[in-house]
């Protein structure tokens, strides 16, 4: 069973909303809960950097407000994505227990839409606090012991979610031999569909030295397995798409939280799987950002 935060049922939602006296907002949110899912669509979020305090701001950005804004955008979609991903750096800096308590609270509206939320770990997360703070994840059967990795199957692709957290609040990441061995074996056992690989850290490249330390070992696993079509990462807080020399697409998700360079957009990406590729659309939090609404068509390598 993949490790994720399951959707909250409409009944649970109703009971909790009534207990919370949220009758005034019930109508619009029920409408969101009733929307049909697009089975081929994923909402891709990264780098939420949630602090225990919802008032916490960094680089002039209130991180809780940004995640709330994204959850409202998701609720406003005419058709909801079947799956939601948060690709690491869920917590602000050191992955404190209170950060995850607030993070889980802020994810509730998304889960009430009926979407499971899949999570990976970044360098600002703490694995034991994450497992303790997110019900069910510690006890879940994991394919790699002591790593938060999972295989999520969908109709048009298999998603391999990897754990690249090395040391908390230290920038570079690592997958490790055991996880790479599982990945290779799992790819071989599931070669019938396109594979999308997801981890927090960027592949090794000259521009970003704080990425995946065993990037070469990862791509030695990925490149010869032709079912691997894309590698999705966050970490650099910079939206862009690139292509590895093997033809594997490299998708750098924007942060939900703050950007490192003021001209870059923060926000989230909606993905639609197609039979032979994937379409991406950037939803910048600033609707005036020149890249807001940008779409990118990725064609799968053969
Ligand atoms: Fe980050």
For this entry, give a set of tags.
302 residues; 7 helices; alpha/beta; 15 strands; binds fe (ii) ion; 25% strand; globular; single chain; 6-stranded mixed β-sheet; 26% helix; 7-stranded mixed β-sheet; Purple Acid Phosphatase, chain A, domain 2
How do the helices and strands line up, and which of them pair or pack?
Blueprint (H helix, E strand, L loop, with lengths): L3 E2 L4 H10 L3 H11 L3 E9 L11 E2 L2 E2 H14 L3 E8 L9 H16 L4 E4 L6 H7 L16 E4 L4 E4 L15 H13 L5 E4 L16 H8 L5 E6 L6 E4 L5 E4 L14 E8 L2 E8 L10 E5 L3
Parallel strand pairs: 2-5, 5-6, 8-9, 9-10, 10-12
Antiparallel strand pairs: 1-6, 2-13, 3-4, 7-8, 11-12, 13-14, 14-15
Kindly name the structural category: alpha/beta
Question: How many structural domains in the coordinates?
Answer: 1
CATH class call: Alpha Beta
Bound molecules: fe (ii) ion
> What is the radius of gyration computed over CA atoms, rounded to a whole number of angstroms?
18 Å
- Tally of individual helices: 7
Any idea what the CATH architecture is? 4-Layer Sandwich
Report the CATH topology name. Purple Acid Phosphatase, chain A, domain 2
Order of helices and strands: EHHEEEHEHEHEEHEHEEEEEE
Please tally the β strands and state the result.
15
Please bin the fraction of helical residues: 25-40%
Provide a descriptive summary of the structure in words.
With 302 residues, the protein is of the alpha/beta class. The protein has a single domain (4-299), classed as Metallo-dependent phosphatases (Purple Acid Phosphatase, chain A, domain 2), CATH 3.60.21.10. The protein is built from 7 helices and 15 strands. The strands form 3 sheets. It has a 7-stranded mixed β-sheet with strand order 1-6-5-2-13-14-15, covered by helices on one side. α1 runs antiparallel to α2 (23-33) and α3 runs parallel beside α4. It is globular. The two termini are 30 Å apart. The model is unreliable at 23-28 (pLDDT under 50). The chain binds fe (ii) ion. The site of fe (ii) ion has 7 residues, from loops. Fe (ii) ion (FE2) is lined by residues 47, 49, 89, 122, 124, 235, 237.
């Amino acid at each position: 069973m993949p490790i994720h935060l399951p959707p909250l049922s409409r009944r649970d939602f109703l009971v909790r909303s009534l207990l919370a006296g949220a009758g005034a907002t019930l109508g619009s949110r029920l409408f969101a809960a009733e929307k049909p899912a697009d089975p081929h669509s994923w909402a891709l979020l990264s780098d939420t950097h949630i602090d225990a305090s919802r008032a916490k701001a960094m680089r002039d950005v209130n991180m809780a407000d940004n995640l709330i804004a994204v959850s409202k955008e998701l609720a406003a979609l005419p058709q909801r994505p079947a799956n939601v991903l948060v690709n690491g750096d869920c917590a602000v800096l050191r992955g404190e227990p209170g950060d995850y308590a607030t993070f889980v609270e802020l994810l509730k509206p998304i889960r009430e839409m009926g979407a499971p939320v899949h999570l990976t770990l970044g360098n600002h997360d703490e694995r034991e606090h994450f497992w303790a703070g997110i019900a069910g994840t510690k006890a879940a059967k994991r394919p790699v012991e002591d790593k938060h990795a999972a295989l999520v199957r969908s109709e048009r692709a298999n998603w391999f979610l990897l754990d690249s957290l090395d040391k908390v609040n230290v920038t570079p990441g690592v997958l490790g031999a055991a996880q790479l061995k599982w990945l290779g074996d799992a790819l071989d056992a599931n070669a019938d569909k396109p594979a999308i690989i997801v981890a927090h850290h960027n592949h090794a490249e000259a521009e970003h030295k704080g990425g995946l330390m065993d990037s070469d070992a990862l791509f030695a696993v990925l490149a010869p397995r032709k079912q691997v079509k894309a590698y999705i990462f966050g970490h650099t807080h910079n939206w862009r798409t690139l292509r590895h020399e093997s033809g594997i697409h490299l998708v750098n998700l924007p942060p939900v939280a703050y950007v490192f360079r003021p001209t870059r957009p923060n926000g989230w990406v909606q993905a639609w799987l197609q039979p032979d590729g994937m379409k991406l659309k950037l939803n910048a939090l600033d609707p005036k950002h020149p890249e807001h609404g940008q779409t990118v068509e990725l064609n799968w390598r053969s």
